[in-house]
Amino acid sequence: MDSGLAISSPKPYSVITTGSYASKASQHTKKTQIKYNLKRVQQLSLGHRYKCIEGGFAYQECNRKYVVQAVPESSFDSEPHTSNPQIILHSVKDFLATLCTLSYPYAMIGLALCALSSSLLAVEKLSDISLSFFVGVLQAAVPQLFFAIYSNALNQVSDLEIDKINKPHLPLASGQLSLKTVVIIAASFLTLSFWLSWIVGSWPLIWNLVLITSIWTAYSVNVPFLRWKKNPILAAMCMVSSWAFVLPITFFLHMQTFVLKRPIVFPRSLILAIVIMNFFFVGMALAKDIPDVEGDKIYGIDTFAIRIGQKQVFWICIFLFEMAFGVSLVAGATSSSLLVKIITGVGNAVLASVLWFQANSIDLSSKTSGGSFYMLIWKLMYASYFLVALIR
């Protein structure tokens, strides 16, 4: 053997090729994987000279230098990299982050707060707020959160080409998730939401899912007579009917009839909440299209922002949101509780002031600024849910 050797070891070795060593090396290579890397040869001709001596060979070598690189031999005892818990945990985190982007977390927070706020409207005395109350809130909220993933995934499947222009960061539009994967996610979470509601056995929650599944499927899916989002009036009706009517009424009835075991009623507090949320979500239905004018024009999605202009729609939205805060303030002022009057009065005045101040600094020509304004509305609505729950 007239080549440099790399022995399977983490330490480098210098190798001297001799006749006496050759037999030992040949035995050693049976157990060890050997790799060599010739780094520098000082002479192009190695100048080997051989002569026969007593039936053997004498070997002489001129000016050769080797670098020995030891590479450990693969063994069945080594741990597979794929089983590394850190790699698995990192993959799970990546998937959850992508799923979070797919599902619009701000809408899911809104759903959870809507379930809590509407359930609080059924509370008549402090003893009603018990463990069963919070279990009832979870029974209402969790299937809705799963449904939200279905609804948003379906909308992104239907709007794939539009989102490549308006929202290229979304996981489907950006290629993070394949179309097949998103369809499987949508179907899985819709099935899971219905299964959980059926297990709970609350008819208000079951009817809740039947109604909003019908509404938001009709809103998104591109088949004849559907895809209601192409019509601005139908699109606004989808948002208002689900958020301002179906959700608060069914959540309230679930708590009232299923959890607290009381007869069906429609108290003043629920009616006021519906009125306030109507103002909010009519404005929300208009505001959500303001940043998306470019892509909507290309793909024939008719919106009020396209029909009458972004600026006009923007100030209509501001008026509607301020009306929502105004109605909430007046409703709170009519409460028999002084504490409720103070909290709802001060709270709604602060929210209205923040909205007005921010509205005057929005640049409608900037998609980023328009998106920030839309997120501000959601945050103001979160706070409004708490104030609405106090109205009696």
Automatic annotation (TrEMBL):
Membrane-topology annotation of the record: Multi-pass membrane protein
Molecular function (Gene Ontology), one example: prenyltransferase activity
Subcellular location: Plastid, Chloroplast membrane
Pfam families: UbiA (PF01040)
Cellular component per GO, a single term: chloroplast membrane
Cross-referenced InterPro entries: AtHST-like, UbiA_prenyltransferase, UbiA_sf
This protein's UniProt keywords: Chloroplast, Membrane, Plastid, Transferase, Transit peptide, Transmembrane, Transmembrane helix
Main location: plastid
Transmembrane domains' residue ranges: 104-123, 130-150, 177-198, 205-221, 233-253, 265-287, 313-331, 338-359, 371-391
Family indicated by similarity: Belongs to the UbiA prenyltransferase family.
Name of protein: Glycinol 4-dimethylallyltransferase
Species this chain originates from: Glycine max (Soybean)
Gene: PT01
